[in-house]
Design goal:
7 helices; mainly alpha; single chain; two-stranded antiparallel sheet; 179 residues; 3% strand; globular
């Protein structure tokens, strides 16, 4: 469960994982803002930020702070040029929901983690579209909604593998600094 105090600043060996999380999240959010044209017909934009946040909540819950997730949501909104607060609220709901069920998700195999991510991505993306529709009058095509969910779920396994390898490298670096 995320803590409200920034206690990781007191120990330098715990500052490095937090900094890597923040820098990697900012980098992925910039990549997410770039549309990917496919055959000059459709533009797909997988939600890389959702993948990164989901994996970091599962692997490193001690560095996931509500204030950081809120700020990353505002950063996403600014990059995507949508009204401020849509991703910020969605990120806070994501952090709370996944942190409540983290022990059940993390204890299972990859198939269960992928299934949990699939359900989470549907709810998260639907929440973003419903907030945009209800409060800002944004009308989205159901095909865009379906393609976003499909591409996000299809790209989750390689992103998870990359983040898991990065996580193991960070844990190894932190362990060597302790000695």
């Amino acid at each position: 469960m995320p803590s409200s105090k920034l206690s990781f600043f007191r120990r330098p060996d715990q500052f490095y994982p937090w900094l890597m999380f923040l820098l990697f999240s900012l980098f992925i959010s910039i990549i997410m803002a770039v549309p990917w044209p496919v055959l000059n017909v459709h533009v797909i934009m997988p939600n890389f930020m959702l993948m990164v946040l989901f994996v970091w909540i599962i692997l490193r819950p001690e560095i996931c702070q509500y204030s950081i997730f809120f700020a990353l949501g505002l950063w996403q909104d600014m990059l995507l040029s949508i009204p401020l607060g849509i991703h910020a609220v969605s990120n806070l709901v994501l952090l709370y929901a996944i942190s409540q069920f983290r022990q059940y998700i993390f204890a299972r195999n990859f198939d269960f983690i992928a299934l949990c991510f699939a359900m989470t991505s549907v709810v998260y993306i639907a929440m973003i579209y419903s907030i945009a529709f209800l409060f800002f009058g944004y009308h989205a095509n159901i095909a865009v909604f379906a393609v976003k969910i499909l591409t996000t779920n299809l790209l989750f396994p390689p992103i998870f593998a990359i983040l898991l390898r990065l996580h193991r490298g960070i844990v190894h670096l932190s362990a060597t600094r302790l000695r």
